[in-house]
Write a structure and sequence with these properties.
This protein is an alpha/beta fold. About 40% of the residues are buried. Helix 1 packs across helix 13, helix 6 runs antiparallel to helix 14 and helix 9 packs across helix 14. The strands form 3 sheets. It has an 8-stranded mixed sheet with strand order 8-11-12-7-13-14-15-16, with helices on both faces. Helix content is about 35%, strand content about 20%. The two termini are about 35 Å apart. It folds into 2 domains: about 150 residues, NAD(P)-binding Rossmann-like Domain (Rossmann fold, 3-Layer(aba) Sandwich), CATH 3.40.50.720; about 240 residues, Dihydrodipicolinate Reductase, domain 2 (2-Layer Sandwich), CATH 3.30.360. Bound molecules: NADP nicotinamide-adenine-dinucleotide phosphate (NAP). The site of NADP nicotinamide-adenine-dinucleotide phosphate (NAP) has 20 residues, from helix 1.
């Protein structure tokens, strides 16, 4: 959420420097920030891992990653040659206490060279089991440093359940102030997601409509065509509810449902978001049965290619009861949203990859047109498409051109590609820049994470205690299990999908 401000001298330490996240997201994001002129001259990256690499070898590996994954395409030699000297590598086992002393020495070296104190950002792109040991090691090595100059970025997943999230928060709180902790939910860095707040709070026409008087229900749907692939090891202990709903989808819900913050500062925005989570109706076991459904994909065909079912994926447990699909009906018990259902669904191996928020408005109180003119009649809808299409569409009724009176639905479209010519930054660019600028607006505060876990725990517990007998219950390339259709159909609705290319 940055406006062009100067970043102070900064050292960016990446734990997991040799890992997948750094290769695909972090270094390409830092490189693009460099190209766009955001990074200061006094800037150093220290990548770490146990792999034995020299600075030069590490740079060569990262160049290949940038060439493959950067939104700006293959790196131009001249630009890369300027960027590469900022990259350093240090062999380190995070379990070894001396590793943190070695970082300290390198950081001190940069400060001496720059003749200025540096802000230090530690990015934990490693398995969650290492979060506590790194957080403790870093804190000890910075015992005398001004807290304003040390930040720690924690990747997803933040905890496995409420208890573990609380324990991690407690450990972090022993060593850091909340203003030093950046809990990543990369969805919050996406352009279209940031735009939800602009759309809601910078336009006077929205607020009077944005409540139970005019809105019938809300859908938040994040569907993926990909399966788990080779990530079964991680995914089998997680599942769709933990992996997607507890964090990304509930964060989207918060942005849709939050009250206007007093101002656009990190704490005000995060206060209003946590209010939403606190107001959400807690589940009884009975409600879990009625309002939460799950699925697991079986084999099928996607775009002419045969794909395995979840239980047949590489290294999968052939009797796994992990859900690869989840759909849940939530309620927000406050004045604005009383009685308005929020349906959230997510799943893998579905027909198409798309992230869409649909605000379904109520119908007009009385239809004045004869039945034969309103064949294509649809209640107004606002569709916020996050990916792959980046757009906001308002669906309204209009008269079709012609001598007769025929109504149909048309889209008023705000399309990023048609409106803006500048390239959209990747979510990680926004988020990494914000860590350097010290802006926490797009990061999760500890209490937000715990409220979100608290909300989903009854569903997790109930599903764990009652493994599904019907898995697999949807085939690849479908829109999920029938129970998910039934969840919304019982209330008279159906799941909304955006037509390809947005065309109707
Ligand atoms: P990964 O490819 O398996 O990389 C793990 C990294 O940890 C490697 O760099 C490895 O380096 C390092 N490592 C392991 N044990 C170590 C030790 N004892 N000491 C020092 N370094 C050690 O994992 P990843 O996919 O990058 O994921 C990293 C984190 O980001 C995870 O928490 C994951 O949930 C999260 N995340 C990843 C993605 C993604 O797209 N990949 C997306 C969202 C969140 P060496 O082998 O060289 O030691």
């Amino acid at each position: 959420m940055s406006t062009k401000t100067t970043i102070p001298p900064t050292v960016f330490v990446i734990f997991g420097g040799t890992g997948d996240l750094n290769a695909r997201k972090l270094t390409p994001a830092l490189y693009n920030l460099f190209l766009d002129g955001w990074l200061p001259a006094q800037f150093a990256i220290i990548g770490t891992g146990r792999s034995k690499l020299t600075d030069e070898e590490f740079r060569t590996n990262l160049l290949a990653d940038v060439n493959q994954f950067s939104r700006s395409g293959k790196a131009k030699k001249e630009a890369w040659d300027k960027f590469a000297p900022h990259i350093n590598y240090q062999v380190a086992d995070v379990k070894a206490p001396e590793a943190y002393e070695e970082f300290g020495q390198r950081i001190a070296g940069f400060e001496k060279e720059w003749n200025a104190p540096a802000n230090v950002i530690y990015y934990l792109a490693v398995a969650p089991e290492f979060f506590p040991i790194i957080a403790t090691g870093v804190a000890k090595s910075h015992a005398g440093t001004d807290p304003a100059r040390v930040r720690i970025v924690i990747e997803k997943p933040f905890g496995h359940d409420l208890e573990s999230a609380r324990a991690l928060n407690q450990l972090l709180a022993e060593h850091y102030e909340e203003r030093q902790i950046y809990r990543i939910d990369h969805y919050l860095g996406k352009e279209t997601v940031q735009n939800i707040m602009a759309f809601r709070f910078a336009n006077a026409i929205m607020e009077p409509l944005w409540n139970r008087n005019t809105i019938e229900h809300v859908q938040i749907s994040v569907t993926e065509q990909l399966g788990v692939g080779e990530r079964t090891g991680y995914y089998d202990g997680s599942g769709a509810l933990r992996d997607m709903i507890q964090n990304h989808l509930l964060q989207l819900l918060c942005l849709v449902a939050m009250e206007p913050p007093v101002n656009f500062t990190a704490d005000e925005v995060r206060n209003r978001k946590v209010d939403v989570l606190r107001a959400m109706r807690r589940f009884t076991p009975e409600m879990v049965r009625e309002s939460a459904v799950r699925g697991q994909y079986g084999p099928g065909w996607i775009e002419g290619k045969q794909v395995p079912g979840y239980r047949e994926e590489k290294d999968a447990n052939p009797t796994s009861s992990t859900e690869t699909f989840a759909a849940v009906k939530f309620f927000v018990d406050n004045w604005r949203w009383q009685g308005v259902p929020f349906y959230l669904r997510t799943g893998k191996r579905l027909h198409r990859s798309a992230s869409i928020i649909t605000i379904q408005f109520k119908d007009v109180p009385h239809v004045i047109f004869p039945a034969e003119t309103v064949e294509g009649w649809r209640k107004n809808r606002l569709v916020i498409s996050i990916q792959p299409e980046m757009s906001i569409r308002l669906q309204v009724q209009a008269k079709r051109p012609g001598l007769d009176m025929m109504l149909n639905t048309v889209d008023m479209v705000f399309d990023y590609q048609g409106t803006y010519t500048n390239e959209t930054p990747e979510a990680y660019e926004t988020l990494l820049l914000d860590t350097m600028l010290g802006d926490q607006t797009l990061f999760m505060r500890g209490d937000q994470v715990e409220e979100a876990w608290d909300l989903v725990m009854p569903i997790l517990t109930s599903w764990q205690n009652r493994p599904s007998l019907s898995f697999p219950n949807y085939s690849a390339d479908s829109w999920g299990p029938e129970v998910a259709e039934a969840l919304v159909a019982r209330d008279g609705f159906h799941w909304f999908t955006l037509p390809l290319n947005g065309k109707k």
